[in-house]
Design goal:
It holds the Pfam family zf-C3HC4_3. One of its GO terms (molecular function) is zinc ion binding. This is RING-type domain-containing protein. The chain contains two helices and three strands. The chain is α+β, with helices and mostly antiparallel strands. The chain has two domains: 35 residues, no CATH class; 47 residues, Herpes Virus-1 (2-Layer Sandwich). A three-stranded antiparallel sheet has the order 2-1-3. A hairpin with a 4-residue loop joins β1 and β2. Bound molecules: zinc ion (2 copies). One zinc ion binds next to loops.
């Protein structure tokens, strides 16, 4: 029995402070995305504009035949890129 493997692994303790930081970042992010979120599903970002100027996400916009905000018939759909 000569398998004398005596390795001491020094475990790094978890930092509870790092958890706190991610919560604060999440909170401020919500405030910004609230203005950019689709008014129909409240899930996706607005990335589709209609001829009237209103915006929804692509998922909702594809199913609509008229604008849910001003009820104008949708004749054109424009892809919007928000950075
Ligand atoms: Zn949507
Ligand atoms: Zn509209």
């Amino acid at each position: 029995m000569g398998l004398g493997s005596s390795r001491m692994e020094s475990g790094s303790p978890l930092d509870p402070d790092s958890n706190y930081t991610s919560i604060r970042v999440d909170d401020s992010d919500e405030e910004i995305s609230d203005r950019l979120v689709c008014p129909i599903c409240f899930t996706n970002a607005k990335d589709l504009a209609f001829g009237c100027g209103h915006l929804t996400c692509q998922d909702c916009g594809a199913r609509l035949s008229d604008c849910p905000i001003c009820r104008q018939p949708i004749e054109i759909r424009i892809r919007v890129f928000i950075e």
